[in-house]
Amino acid sequence: MRPLQIFLALSLALGACSLPTDLGTPCELLAPGDGGGLLDTSSGTDDYVYLGATACENLVCVRPQGSTADGGIGVCSNVCTPDSPGAACGPSADCDSSHSGLVCRSLTIDPNFVKQVEAEDGGAALLAQYLPSSTYCAPPPPDGGC
Predict the structure, then answer these.
(1) Is 38 helix (H, G, I), strand (E, B) or coil?
(2) What pTM, to 2 d.p., does this model score?
């Protein structure tokens, strides 16, 4: 009977622990095509959402406008919902904000890109599957507007 008690105690203790996450871990935004290399983010005025980032457990790497990271570098992210309903930006359980320093904020997806994908056969389904939201875990805006 003793081994069963030890097993149950360990199970309860492990169940109380949360698994580490890669939210906020640096990741690379790769340039499209076969040439390789990092995406040119020199404009500094655009938000970038890179889907398919194999270095990230959720396959999402973001680089918000005004990021101070080196060019082509973002952070691992995921889709989120702010803790305060209706807030455009703020803490979120989805972002583990108290530990990661990330907030849930709306990123601007290039409308021309969205139109281009929608025009493709099956494009609407692709957008729904791979770009279900415009709110992602990201560093707070540089102007502190969150």
Answers:
(1) strand
(2) 0.71
Instruction: Grade residue 122 by pLDDT with cuts at 50, 70 and 90.
Output: confident
- Tens of pLDDT, residue by residue over 70-95, are 778 899 998 898 898 878 789 999 99
Number of neighbouring beta carbons within 10 Å of residue 16: 7
Task: Give the pair of three-digit tokens for residue 146.
Answer: 């969150």
124 contacts: CB under 8 Å, gap ≥ 6: 118
Per the CB < 8 A criterion, the answer to whether 113 and 46 are in contact is no
Tell me the per-residue pLDDT of 49-65, one tens digit each, with 9 for 90 and over. 887 788 898 888 888 88
| The dihedral formed by the CA atoms of 136, 66, 24 and 89, expressed in degrees to the nearest 10 | -40
- Phi, psi for 27 (deg, rounded to 5): -145, 165
CA-to-CA distance for 103 and 81, rounded, in angstroms?
10
The span from the CA of 34 to the CA of 23, in Å, is: 27
Axis-axis angle for helices 123-130, 111-119 (nearest 10) = 130
